[in-house]
Fold each of these.
Amino acid sequence: MDFFIPYGNFPRPLVALAGNPNTGKSTIFNALTGLKQHTGNWTGKTVTLAQGSFFYNNIKFCIVDLPGTYSLLANSPEEEVARNFILLQKPDVIVVITDATCLERNLNLVLQVMEITDRIIVCVNLIDEAKKKGIFVDESILSKELGVPVILTAARTGLGLQELKEMIFKVYSGKIKPSPQRINYGKEVEKAIAELIPFIENKFSGTINPRWAALSIISGDYSIKDLEELVKKSENNREESTHGLFKRYNCGENIRKSPVHSTKGSKI
Ligand SMILES: Nc1nc2c(ncn2[C@@H]2O[C@H](COP(=O)(O)OP(=O)(O)OP(=O)(O)O)[C@@H](O)[C@H]2O)c(=O)[nH]1
Ligand SMILES: [Mg+2]
């Protein structure tokens, strides 16, 4: 197993595993690659990434296990590494691993990744644990609501992992083209985004997703190098940014309501 920092050249096709902490990313990584990565949690560990590979249809996919993050807002070294990897390495496929027992909480990251890339698969893991709690996720409704493929897995027993590999291949090869539902942040914010995009395109000339960068600026995240220069453009939009983030959260809640059923009526 190799450890490395997230900059440099990676073999292609490149697959990234993203997700909230403790959703089973490393378990899935190990199962797909046959590697034995330590899956424990401990604080203060250096942010390193595990790289491995798997074959599907005679194609060797390089796969990277990103650190667990709740968002891509670069609030911590983990978030910064995950965000920079997704933005700069532009993986061919990003699998966002979510926890079926608390899907709503996980959708925030899913929606953020959907703002950066189209090549996304949502993996709803821990369905065995969810079942025990009487929670069932309808993958076809969730997939329709999000506009991206959804695969249910129980990584510990290997359930759904073959389907996951097949879906990675289909998204990579273009057999399936996800079309993520992008949040409409409302007139004011969308206007601010539209005004910022030309400046971002001019500055970064296609290296990062301009809509995502515009949203970051409006949300007050200036951590990407050189974004500061664009900040002045968004000075008038601070108030709307809070509104936009609020809407993002609410969207997660709405999606959660339809495809997730709890037979016990418990709060998910
Ligand atoms: N029951 C059950 N347990 C699982 C499943 N997937 C992972 N686990 C367990 O959940 C725990 C966390 O799994 P990890 O693979 O370490 O999760 P992670 O997302 O890599 O965690 P971080 O790297 O800390 O973000 C481990 O004890 C796994 O054995 C699953 O589908 N079902
Ligand atoms: Mg892990």
Amino acid sequence: MSYQKQFIEISPPKYGMEEMYSVCNHKCNLCKGRGAIPTVGDKEGNTRPKTCKRCDGTGTLKAVIKINWTPDS
Ligand SMILES: [Zn+2]
């Protein structure tokens, strides 16, 4: 099975002490990318998918990576 890996090479910037990166389009592992989670049936046995709160129904997640540079003391 193939899968994609993403790497960040860390190196101090010339200016600034803070960096931020976003890595998008990761499949939500809670709803398995469907954007909804099946619920238990009601009294009549009807089930209705519930919007996944983790990905807000999009089925994908974004990683926000923040790097703070500080003196190494
Ligand atoms: Zn989800």
